[in-house]
Amino acid sequence: MRISLPAGQGGERLYATCLMARETSPPGGDKGLCWCLLTNREAGSVDDLSQWIEWYRARWEIEMYFHVLKNGCRVEALQLGSRGKVELALAIYMVVSWRIARLMRLSRTQPDMKADQLFSREEWQAAYLMKRKVLPKETPSLREVVRLVAMVGGFMGRKNDGEPGAQTLWQGLERVRTFVEHFDYARGVIGSIKSTGQ
Predict the structure, then answer these.
(1) For residue 15, with 0-12 CB atoms within 10 Å meaning exposed, 13-18 middle and 19 or more buried, which class applies?
(2) 98 contacts: CB under 8 Å, gap ≥ 6
(3) CA gap 178, 53 in Å, rounded
(4) How far apart are CA 2 and CA 127, in angstroms?
(5) How much is the pTM?
(6) pLDDT 10s digits, 127-148
(7) Which of 144, 113, 130 is nearest to 177 (CA)?
(8) Is 8 in contact with 30 (CB distance < 8 Å)?
(9) Dihedral of the CA atoms 101, 107, 108, 109 (nearest 10)?
(10) Share above pLDDT 70 across residues of the chain, in percent, rounded to a whole number
């Protein structure tokens, strides 16, 4: 339905389309969702309405991404002095946030996925070593590695703790990457010592 809303003083009006979307067959007998969506777009067809609902369904992913950027990566605490520095930092942190949000989502929705699809071999092995766990013979599941990485970042992993959040996963990834870099450096130094016979 196209509706008209007051746009402030002076009698001006704002025109919007109101769309009601109701879940008709909710899973598990739960009460179905009912969304009231407002948009400045005009509906030309049922396909338009369906597309708007799909866009709204993506809202949670977008909110999670910005939650990770703000709270996991703590970009607001950077306090950089110039716009250029802020833009450079955001370019890096946005990629990091995307990775963390993706790891969080996939470890919950596809927990049995093999970890090597999203982690390098060195990364998931570093998480095991840092938590003093025996390296498995087979590539572990994504959920197992995400939980280990988050534990490196401070996640307790107790029975009722639920799944890891953005901040512990971010801190764990940072520590795992540092471990991998130091290990690679040490391996290079040992290799050069062996090759020179010292």
Answers:
(1) exposed
(2) 65
(3) 42
(4) 54
(5) 0.67
(6) 999 999 999 999 999 999 999 9
(7) 130
(8) no
(9) 100
(10) 99
